[in-house]
Amino acid sequence: MELNQVFNIIDKNLSETNKNLGFKRADSLCSDNEVVYTGDLGAYRLSYDGKSSIMSFECTYENAGAETEYNTIARSLLELDTADDKEAKSLSNEMLDEIEGMFKVKKQVNLDKVKMPKSVSRTKAKRGTISYDVDSLANRFGALYPEFKNDIKQNIVDYGEFLPETFFAEHGNAKVLSIIKNGTEAEQKRLFKMLGEIFEDGTNEVQDIIGVTILGEMKNDPEMMAVADKYMSEYMAGPVHEINKITAKNNRYTKKLKNPPAYKPKKKKGFNPTNALSEMNNNR
Fold this sequence. Notes:
single chain; alpha+beta; elongated
């Protein structure tokens, strides 16, 4: 199969997606071994190396014509001597996934129609019938600070579920730390009352979120820890202090928290300050 045949098959299979995203083939930028597509969202190209038989998918969000600098996103083996239509279509499907992942514009969602997560009943949680979970934390946090309800809903829209690590890192923690540092006693008391209730009657996962993702951000600051100690129960204070001793240092746990791997939901077996840090790193 000739390379131009492969490019034509790919071009045909990508036509609908290119139309939806506003990409057009830039013939002036194409050559014998590469084809380029440009649009308002940026540019991408398919480049073939005949020596290595590798087809590279490269893209950029900044289109500068012939001066454009691309980033290589994916590489696929394509041996033209043995390639057929089926292999060319398979390659185009791989490219389609990459293009949609890089450029597809998310549809706007009316957040008023998105429901807030439901909280576990306080009575049932106290009786031990059922434990508070991360949805309960989202619900209670939104009730205490209504200005964050849309951020919580947007988090759900973005990830298909409430992803607490991301929400608190991007939005909630700033509010929590501000209250701990500069809030009134009444504000601080309400904050720790809510966190304390959920922590003491919560799942291991929600304990990890409160202990590591939220309160771990105090990083053992003496003034903030003093405020926390005024309102934390003994059950909560022990793990929080142990976690802050770790998050205050530059170590393998804190490095992973700053640059977490891809999020993969995972059930936790037990709560332990050190294990909590390790598990949180694996889940983010």
